[in-house]
Amino acid sequence: MPTVFVVNPVSGGGRTGRRWAEVSRRLAAAGVEHRSQITERPGHAIELAAAALAAGADTVVAVGGDGTLNEVANGFFAGDGPPPGSAMGLLPLGTGGDFRRTLGIPDDLDAAAAMLRARRLRPIDAGRIEMAGLDGKPCVRHFLNIADAGIGGEVVERVNRTSKALGGRISFQYAAMATLLTYEPRVVTVESAEGRYAGPAQNVVVANCRYFGGGMWVAPEAEPDDGRFDIVLMGDIKRLKALTSIGDLYKGKHLGNPEVRAWRTAEITVTSEQRVLVDVDGEMCGTLPATFRVLPRALGFVVP
Question: What is the pLDDT of residues 128-155, one digit of tens each?
Answer without folding.
Answer: 999 999 999 999 999 999 999 998 777 7
